[in-house]
Amino acid sequence: MLANSIHVVILAKADTLIPESFIQELLNRVDIVDVIDKSVPLKKAGANYSACCPFHNEKSPSFTVSPTKQFYHCFGCGAHGTSVGFIMEYQGLSFVDAIHDLAKMVGMTVPQEVRDSDKPAPKVVVGLQEALQQAANFYKAELKKSPRAIEYLKARGLSGQVAAKFQVGYAPAGWQNLQSVFPQYENEALTVAGLVVENEQGRRYDRFRDRIMFPIHDQKGQVIGFGGRVINPEDTPKYYNSPETPLFQKGHELYGLFLARRAIRDAGRALVVEGYMDVVALAQYGIEYAVAALGTATTPYHITKLTRQADEIVFCFDGDNAGRTAAWRAAMNALPALTDGLKLSFLFLPKEHDPDSYVREFGKEKFEAEIKSAMPLSQYILQHLSEDNPLQSQEDRVRFLNEAEPIMQQISAPRSAMYLRKKVAELAQLSADEMQALLKLPNLNKAPMKAKPKLTRTTMSLQKRFGLMLLMHPELAQEDDLELLSERDDADALLRQVIEICLLHPHSKPAVLLRELESKIDANVLPELQRELTLLDDTLDHAQELAGARQQLQAVHTQRQSASLLARISEKPLSALTADEIALLKSVGSKPQPK
């Protein structure tokens, strides 16, 4: 799996290689919803997104995209895969070209490594995600052993239940505590994962020591990094995060989002705060829709991730100078991701409070009342620009326009941009036309780009999907499956061959099974099966998918039996029908004809 290894290299061309560490970082940065939405407009459908499938013609949507699992799946034609798979199939690109295309979307440059046959194969470092999970388990266990850490959390008002929900742990004091978890303390995965640091003298030691540990999860719920908070207020820095790794980029992840998704959807809003303790403390008081940026300003990637969950985002910052600076940076970073359907607002607490202390002193009801009265983005921008500008003289208004111009240039949402421009023009004592003539602002009436035309794809039959999943997992084949098949259907005939091969070779790999099938099926079908197998998504639960397909086959089999029985009954005279046969005819709305 890509998520579990780094430094493995993928052949790109005859003499060049793409490092797998880059591919992993790329997949962590892209959001499949963004990738597909550029070509196929998606609509929110519960936790997922839906559309009419771009790979076959249909009138009602059966194509779904999961932001959590980061894959797409069509229940009509069976198309499914990751961002890379979608680009390959939709645009007809090779794997390497798809990687280049995705990299361009997120502003990354694909590195190339020259292959040298005289050099040894690159070293493989495995277990990156597993190492992080083992560390999380260790920190969690250590918390139970530390009365000092437990007392600290209790003093902050945290219950054991909430601490367990967020998997809070404790990294004990000492230099090499992780050596008890990882006997191979020299393993490169530990340094790449940010768990171990190596100094200039080559000495290795634990990165996190004597800190409350907050695991950071990706959108699949996997641990990808940590945030550590000091217990002793004299220690610095107050918060200490994992470094950037192939699994973890601070500008793309939000602490608490994986756990907060349902609460965000239920509340219809997301609350962005500054620290881990703010998120956990708010959850303690029933405000479970809070997330935090990870030691960096809120980025457009953060905004885009949150808009996939709700149409309202409230930023809550401390009322001191640092909080106000962070709020302005968040507002500016949010501008490129702004849409007309998105409501952004800003809540500033009193200088002596942060969200943690405020909710503990005043409670949930008062805090949520403050959220509802938060300042809208446009009002905040105008207030900030005019804070130290009286707008009395011509020079004041020119300065105001100069500062407002780059902000207005970044807003592409037509209605939001138009209303902000109107207010700026009023404050500058200009008409909208005069301001437009003076400033270089983008045209808001630009026609939107049309989506690409749908590609054609043959709908994958139920039998083929069932057969492909059996080829991946032959051990799941059952003899009873053969009874569900018709003797006269070509699709059933192919599936019968697959089932029989799988029953004979339940532990063989797909390639072996295909060789066994070669002499039993049409030669033109084999390459098609090989291609479809490569498109199967490893992230799907094939056992669950297969069970669902088996139920569908059983339903088809039952329908066939009923149709055959009805045909036989319909040929009988009314007087020859039994009570059960008459009931069956009535249940399907068919009346027996007297003969």
From TrEMBL:
Name the needed cofactors.
Answer: Zn(2+)
Please give the subunit comment from the record.
Answer: Monomer. Interacts with DnaB.
Task: Give the ZnF (CHC2-type) ranges.
Answer: 53-77
Looking at the keywords, is Metal-binding present?
Answer: yes
Function noted in UniProt = RNA polymerase that catalyzes the synthesis of short RNA molecules used as primers for DNA polymerase during DNA replication.
Alphabetical keyword list: DNA replication, DNA-binding, DNA-directed RNA polymerase, Magnesium, Metal-binding, Nucleotidyltransferase, Primosome, Transcription, Transferase, Zinc, Zinc-finger
Q: Which reaction does it catalyse?
A: ssDNA + n NTP = ssDNA/pppN(pN)n-1 hybrid + (n-1) diphosphate
The source's superkingdom equals Bacteria
Q: Name one GO cellular component term.
A: cytoplasm
What this protein is called in its record is DNA primase
Record-level Gene Ontology MF annotations: DNA binding; DNA-directed RNA polymerase activity; zinc ion binding
Explain how, and how many, cofactor molecules are bound: Binds 1 zinc ion per monomer.
Spell out the family assignment given in the record's similarity comment: Belongs to the DnaG primase family.
Its domain description in UniProt is:
Contains an N-terminal zinc-binding domain, a central core domain that contains the primase activity, and a C-terminal DnaB-binding domain.
Biological process annotations from GO: DNA replication, synthesis of primer
Q: Does the keyword Zinc apply?
A: yes
State its Enzyme Commission number(s): 2.7.7.101
Tell me the classification of the organism that encodes this protein.
Bacteria, Pseudomonadati, Pseudomonadota, Betaproteobacteria, Nitrosomonadales
